[in-house]
Write a structure and sequence with these properties.
Shape: elongated
Structural class: alpha+beta
Number of domains: 1
Mean pLDDT: 87
Helix content: 10-25%
Order of helices and strands: HEEEEEEEEEEEEEEEE
Number of helices: 1
Length: 291
């Protein structure tokens, strides 16, 4: 007796070659779409992470600069600080600008007495001596730059020796930043600095672009005589605007006494393949407390 096939029974034959090719094609398209979405999402995530890192670095640098800007000129406000350096006399301020070409980057130098302060115990003469008798030498060390001021004049000198008791700061001419004994400096009070005049240990820092020390152009902070400290990596531009008391803005003020606010700006640029280059900036508006 021959076997019968029931009405619902199918042949045991498998998929045809055409069906397999169609299935593989569909699976390939689905896999390509999934991987494309994955890599696109990964690239977007990396771009966002880079953007966040750049902005955080620029914001941190701007906050550091803002803090030191607020303290610039501490102790002598807008006074010109006269100094002597290797036989040359000049003057500086709490905020000193350095302007580049119109499209280039700026630099800024800040000087402030925010670390240690004392007063003169005895008056100086009409010309410079070899030492300053002070109320306390605590916080001062050999090599420190100091500013001596009575509120009407200010001079920068360098400490060559420190004596604790009695408290004396040596300012001998062994330092090229101190003139020979008996020299009369520009702006030195005709009767000298009186007892009670302030003596500030000063910090001098500069912010500027550095395109050689790191793999990418960066904003660095440099203390006088020290190595550059990285404060913002991969920076495309650093510029400083000065808002004047008459409402105008400039990158090169002719009179520091007319500056009302300082506006540091840090620019970053991110190039993403297939997209337009994105430019971002972080900035602050600062009025030094002494202005």
């Amino acid at each position: 007796m021959s076997a019968r096939h029931g009405p619902g029974r199918r042949s045991a034959a498998g998929f045809s070659l055409v069906e397999l090719m169609i299935a593989l094609s569909v699976m390939g398209l689905v896999a390509a779409a999934v991987f494309s979405t994955f890599f696109r999402s990964q690239k977007v995530g990396q771009t966002m992470a880079t953007t966040v890192n750049l902005r955080q670095g620029a914001r941190g640098a701007c906050q550091l600069l803002e803090r030191e800007l607020r303290m610039a000129g501490s102790g002598w406000r807008r006074l010109a600080v006269y100094r002597y350096d290797g036989g040359v006399q000049d003057s500086v301020f709490g905020v000193n600008f350095g302007c580049g070409e119109p499209a280039a980057c700026d630099s800024i130098n800040l000087i402030g007495g925010w670390t240690a302060v004392t007063t003169l115990r005895t008056a100086t003469g009409a010309s410079l001596g070899t030492s300053l008798e002070v109320a306390s030498a605590s916080g001062f060390a050999v090599g420190d730059l100091i500013v001596l001021t009575d509120g009407a004049a200010a001079h920068q000198l360098q400490v060559t020796s420190v004596t604790a008791s009695p408290a004396v700061l040596g300012i001998a001419s062994s330092s090229t930043r101190n003139p020979p004994t008996g020299t009369t400096l520009n702006g030195w009070p005709s009767t000298g600095y009186g007892a009670g005049s302030q003596v500030y240990r000063t910090t001098s820092v500069s912010y500027l672009m550095d395109s050689t020390s790191f793999a990418k152009p960066s904003l660095v902070r440099r203390e006088l005589g020290g190595a550059p400290q990285l404060v913002a990596y991969d920076v495309s531009r650093f510029q400083v605007l000065y808002r004047m008391q008459d409402g105008t803005q400039t990158r090169a003020p002719s009179d520091i006494a007319m500056v009302d606010e300082v506006v540091p700006m840090i620019w970053t640029t991110q190039a993403t393949p297939g997209h337009a280059t994105a430019t971002d900036s972080v900035w602050a508006v600062v009025r030094p407390r002494t202005f």
